[in-house]
Structures are given as C-alpha cells and as structure tokens.
Write a structure and sequence with these properties.
Layout (H helix, E strand, L loop, with lengths): L1 E4 L7 H13 L12 H9 L7 H8 L17 H12 L3 H20 L2 H13 L3 E4 L15 E4 L3 E12 L6 E7 L5 E7 L8 E4 L12 E12 L10 H37 L1 E2 L2 E2 L4 H30 L4 H27 L13 H9 L9 H15 L10 H8 L29 H15 L4 H25 L7 H24 L2 H4 L1 H4 L2 H14 L10 H14 L13 E4 L4
Parallel strand pairs: 2-5
Antiparallel strand pairs: 1-11, 3-4, 4-8, 5-6, 7-8, 9-10
Helix pairs in contact: 1-4, 4-5, 4-7, 5-7, 7-8, 7-9, 7-10, 8-9, 8-12, 8-15, 8-18, 9-10, 9-11, 9-15, 11-15, 13-14, 13-15, 14-15, 14-18, 15-18
Length: 589
C-alpha cells in the first residue's frame, strides 16, 4: 500500500480515503475477502441478491457519510473524494455503487435548495443508513420531463400528490423519495416525501423490474394515490423543479464516470490475470501481439479516463458554473470508453469471457452486464451529446471576457492540490456555460506551454513526437470548427452529434496534456518523462484516424508499470507512474 513520489508532492485526501476503503474491503480476487470477493459477488447475483453482509460492511466503513456534506455532519467535503471511493466500490460491485449513487441523486437537491428542517431530517436518516431515491421518470415519458403527469395540488398548507413514478432506483427500500411533480399548469416542483410520515394507504411500491445487469439492485417504482403532504414538503421554490433537476444531474453525471473507471480497472486486472495464467503455443498469451495490443490500449484508455474525469469531479467546488458542459462531455466520453475497454478485454478472454465460471469466478460477465447501464443513467449518450452540440456554436467564437485561467486550471488538474470544501448552493450551477470552456478554448496556449515544457523536462524525443501529435490534433480542431461555422443553427442532426463527439475527444486530448503540465514536476519518474502522454495522445488520435499506431519505443516503461500494478494489487492509475522520495498511501490490495 506504500509508494513514493517527490518530497514536494502529497496527493489530495481523496487518494488516502480510497486507499483506506480498499484495504478495508480486501482484494476482490481473494475468495476469503468476504462479501466483496468476486466469489461472493457472483454467487449472490445467481440468486438476484446483494452479497450477504455487503451493505453492512460498507455502512460499517462509513460510505454513507460521503453522501452528506460536512456542514450537516457527514464527510462529503469534495466530489473528488466521493468519486474515488465510488471507483473503489465499483471495481468490486457496481450494484452496491449504483444503490448509493441513486441515493446521491435524491439527496443533492435537498443539500442545495432544502430548508434547515429538510436537510437535518435527510442528513440524520442517511447517516443512520436510510436510503433515498429520485422519482422523476414515468413509464410513458422517459426523459421528457415536461410531460410529467404526477401532480401535487393544494393550498398553502397541504398538497395532495397522485401519480406513478417508474422505474426508480431504491424506490422500495428507500425512505426518502425526492419526487418530481406538477404543482401548476406549467410548473414542476421537487417534493421531499418521507415514507415514514405518509399514510401507508396512500402509496404503493411497485414490483422489481427485471434487468440485464445490476441483479439485486432495487429498481422498482412507486405510485401515490392522494397522498397528503405538508406544503413545506416542496424543496426550495415552488415551480423550480425542472431547473433543480437539470442542475442536480450535472453532479451525478460526473460521478457516473467513477463507475466506468472502476469497471475498467476490474476488467483490465482480470485480463492481465488471464494473460499470465493462460499458455498457448508454448508461451503465455501476453506474448501474442494482438493480446498485448488489447491490454496495453485498455490500460491507456483507463489513464485517459482519469485525466478526463478527475478534473471535472474537482470542478464542483472549483468551477461549478462550468459543469453544464463538462459533466455532459464526461458522461458521454468515459462510459463509452468503458464499454470499449470491456469489449476489448472480452476479446482477450475469448471463450472464457462467455462462461459464468472459471476466470475470477465468471465476474467478467457480471461487470459487462452491469456496466451497460452507465451510458443510460442521467441522460443517455445521445442526450448528453445533444447538450454539447447545443453549446458548440458559442464555443468557437472569440472567448468571452474572463479572468486568466491559469490558476483555475491548476486547481482542476493538479492532483496534489486539495479542492475547496463543497458548500452546497444550487445558484452556483448554471444551465449553460455561456460560451466559457477554459479547458478547450485555451488550446493554443496549452500547446505552447506543453511543447516548451517538454523540451526542458521530458525524455529525449518526446518533445519532437508531441509537436507532431499536437499539429495533427490542431488540424482536427480546425476541421471541427469549420464544420460548426458552416451551419451554426444545426445543433440537433446526426452530423451535429458527430461534431459534439469530436469536441469531447478533443477535450480528452487537452485534459491529458494539462494533466502532464500540472503534475510532471511533483510526480517525477516515468510520469515526468512524458512517454505515457505520447501514447495516450496516439491512442486518442486513433479514434479519429484509425491508422494511428502506438510508438513501440515508449511501451516498455508503460508495461513495467502495468505489471507492477497487477503484481502488487494496486489500482491501474497515473499515480503509479510517479517516482520520488516521499511515501504516500495509494489505493490497492
């Protein structure tokens, strides 16, 4: 659990917290690791249940405390901390992670807009282990929230709620139901419904929904029939429910990336395990070029996902007004990349990946099924791309007047800086970025800084290779901008969504550059030499230019880190490329 970085470097508290959780839960590959061993997880899924003792184990560690802000007695100081512990849970059981993720979605509106009474009631309940759910969806309307039929009518003292919400995570097990309902002809509000205070004859929970994955998760629904609620059940201002919902989703969209990165870590580990154990044609299968290619690229994809998602998780307390764009880009890009990694490791496992037994007790199949939800939660892939497409025309014109972004980018991308503590305030979130994107719009400045820094601090030849890569990336960017300028009114067509997809890819490329720029001095070692940066940019360019290959001369240093992370049971992470003199805790076995 110990490793070393520069004496100047100390990772933000999120890494220490995640390391503590990982040590507490044990190695999932170890059959004796309790309810979070892959053996117990798979056996429970066969029964459509959660592993016996899993929820109690998570509660004993205190995971629920990371759903409650510090000001209300919890330990939720930054989204980065919740992101890292969610990743730790997800590399074992996405089902448990989703259970708590559904609760996070439900309680965040209370933290941001609720009154003191509402906040205390929910905080006390969550800290005791109660669950919450966010009842927005209706069977006939999906994401069309303006067609919501559930309604709460009444006067200044009492509301009468009727309507059916389906499907809803935690609807049956959850105590608190944050409910989206009509409170006027065109007004929608969020209502904090506490089942313990409702007449049991006025609501019914619906049967569980059978799903492809997440077996054992409470995905069901709830029907209200003239349920009487006090008027102060409304969260914040009556009629503000739509805006509150859209803003709340910005936080959970970002957190969902942790589900994907945890899944990537798990399947890459399973693929590495199999490649070490399996022998064909007289040698381990890692020596087969196509197997090596799959595993190396899957590892690179995980590193890219870290570079892309972690800064946006930090943005909740650093730059919350930017999440309307950045959360949608992360929500599109990281789950899609996760799906590709899962498919790639499936190719490594070949027939073994189809079996519900054998390699890691057959957990790969469960991870594959469970992760399929990541691109659907909190707006599908298309919904999030549409949000990006709608903002693109405002992102290609001259930047709006703004303060210099250097300090902001350092706050976002420096892994040794601790983000400010979250002080929940829904007013700080915005429905659009209003043309701001300090990550993407400073492309030229970032490239200039990257190349000048690489010439001094990177390994030989890296700076020259980076110059060629950023030139190609600049051409892609120019081509994209020309496409948007040619038809700025088109933000809904398939072509517009393709342009949004390319913008997300460019965002990932710049995020990789900025991660190196803001951490190379502190991390040192193979992180600082920049070889991984070249490989990540080549891997990203391959998405747009399939003939792009990886530079073979840079692979050995990356592979040595891959093998060490596997052998020592550590997370596959950029942090593992660091080197230096100061010992710190890292997530691992």
């Amino acid at each position: 659990m110990r490793s070393e970085v520069s004496p100047r470097a100390e990772l933000s508290p999120a890494h220490r917290i995640a390391a503590d959780l990982d040590a507490y839960l044990g190695d999932p590959m170890d059959d004796g690791a309790g309810p979070f061993s892959y053996r117990d997880i798979v056996e429970a899924e066969e029964r459509d249940e959660l592993p016996r003792g899993a929820v109690e184990t998570v509660r004993a560690w205190g995971f629920q405390e990371y759903l409650v802000p510090t000001q209300l007695g919890g330990r939720l100081a930054t989204l980065e901390e919740l992101f890292f512990v969610t990743r730790g849970i997800s590399r074992r059981s996405l089902t448990i992670a989703v259970m708590y993720g559904s609760g996070l979605l439900a309680v965040n509106p209370v933290w941001m807009w609720g009154d003191g009474r509402q906040q205390k009631a929910v905080a006390d309940g969550i800290l005791r282990g109660d669950l919450a759910c966010f009842a927005v969806s209706e069977a006939d309307h999906g994401s069309d929230v303006m067609s919501c039929e559930s309604a709460a009518a009444g006067d200044e003292d009492v509301l009468v709620l009727s309507g059916t919400k389906w499907p809803v995570g935690n609807a049956t097990r959850g105590r608190f139901v944050t409910t989206y309902a009509k409170t006027g002809a065109r007004d929608f509000s969020l209502l904090l419904v506490d089942k313990e205070e409702l007449d049991p004859d006025t609501f019914t929970t619906l049967p569980p929904v059978r799903t492809l994955g997440l077996r054992g998760h409470d995905l069901s629904g709830i029907a209200f029939d003239r349920a009487l609620l006090p008027a102060d059940t409304v969260v914040g201002r009556r009629g503000a429910g739509l805006v509150q919902t859209l803003k709340t989703l910005q936080i959970t969209r970002t957190a969902i990336a942790a589900l994907s990165i945890g899944t990537m870590d798990a399947v890459v580990r399973i693929g590495m395990e199999y490649s070490h154990e399996r022998t064909l044609y007289g040698a381990g299968i890692y020596q087969i070029p196509v197997i090596r290619d799959h595993l190396v690229k899957a590892h690179l994809d995980l590193l890219i996902a870290e570079c892309t998602a972690v800064p946006v998780a930090r943005a909740l307390t650093v730059a919350p007004g930017r999440l309307s764009l950045w959360s949608s880009m992360v929500k599109y890009f990281v789950p899609v990349m996760g799906e590709e990694v899962v498919a790639s490791i499936g190719a490594v496992l070949a027939a073994r990946g189809y079996l519900r037994e054998g390699v890691a007790h057959g957990v790969f199949q469960k991870l594959q099924r469970d992760h399929a939800i990541a691109s659907i939660f909190e707006g599908t892939t298309h919904v999030n791309l549409a949000n990006v497409a709608a903002q693109l025309p405002f992102l290609i014109v001259d930047p709006p007047a703004q303060e210099p972004a250097d300090e902001l980018l350092d706050e976002l991308f420096s892994w040794t800086r601790t983000p400010p503590v979250w002080e929940p305030d829904g007013r700080r979130l915005q429905l659009t970025n209003e043309g701001h994107d300090e990550i993407g719009r400073r492309f030229d400045t970032t490239v200039e800084t990257l190349l000048s820094t690489a010439r001094v601090f990177a390994a030989p030849d890296v700076a020259a290779d980076l110059a060629g890569l950023v030139s190609r990336i600049g051409d892609l960017r120019s081509e994209l901008f020309a496409g948007v300028r040619a038809d700025p009114e088109d933000t809904t067509s398939a072509a517009a969504l393709r342009r949004a997809k390319r913008y997300c890819e460019l965002h990932a490329m710049v995020s990789v550059m900025l991660t190196w720029i803001h951490n190379h001095a502190e991390f040192g070692g193979s992180f600082a030499d920049g070889a991984w940066l070249v490989l990540c940019l080549e891997r990203l360019l391959e998405r747009a230019q399939p003939d792009t290959g990886l530079s073979e001369e840079y692979l050995p240093s990356l592979e040595s880190v891959m093998f060490r992370c596997f052998d020592e049971g550590r997370w596959f992470s950029l942090v593992e490329l660091a080197d230096g003199d100061q010992s710190i805790e890292r997530p691992g076995r």
